[in-house]
Amino acid sequence: METIEPRTREAQIDAGRSIAIGERIVTTDGVRGGKPRIAGHRVTVADVAIWYERMGMNPDEIVLDHPRLTLSDVHIALAYYYEHREQIDASIMEDDRIADEMKGKERSIFEKARALRNQTAANDSIPS
């Protein structure tokens, strides 16, 4: 079920805005972990924040890399991010922690292929 985030404090104060942040950022159970995302897309606010903050992409570059997004989508996502920065940064850090934990548990496909190749090479050697 898709829910629209409640209007932010700024959107409530400035009722004259044509587009409220809360109408463009949604959460949906079962879609991207229920994280805030751009309405009509699977792109989360955290995705946009990472591209902008960590990767140093500007909004135009983000739109070039993701042509289904509009420039206003990116700016709305960034505005939402700055309004909810602590919460979204905590979610990003938790996702990073889980990814690091998963990396430590399982060998990569490349490591598995290398081990198999080495094992095969050892078994295929011609005795002298």
Please state the CA-atom Rg, rounded to the nearest Å.
Answer: 22 Å
Q: Poorly predicted ranges (pLDDT <50, ≥5 residues)?
A: 7-19
In spatial order, strands of the major sheet run: 1-2-3
CATH fourth-tier homologous superfamily: Winged helix-like DNA-binding domain superfamily/Winged helix DNA-binding domain
Give the count of helical stretches.
7
Principal-axes geometry comes out as: elongated
H/E element order: EHHEEHHHHH
Structural write-up:
It is a single chain. The protein is mainly alpha-helical and 128 residues long. It has a single domain, classed as Winged helix-like DNA-binding domain superfamily/Winged helix DNA-binding domain (Arc Repressor Mutant, subunit A). It has seven helices and three strands; from the N terminus they run E-H-H-E-E-H-H-H-H-H. A three-stranded antiparallel beta sheet has the order 1-2-3. The longest helix has 21 residues, at 85-105. The chain is elongated.
Topology, element by element:
Layout: E1 2-4, H1 9-13, H2 21-24, E2 25-28, E3 37-38, H3 45-54, H4 59-65, H5 71-83, H6 85-105, H7 109-123
Antiparallel strand pairs: 1-2, 2-3
Helix pairs in contact: 3-5
Brief sketch in words of this structure:
With 128 residues, the chain is mainly alpha-helical. It contains 7 helices and 3 strands.
Primary descriptors:
3-stranded antiparallel β-sheet, Arc Repressor Mutant, subunit A
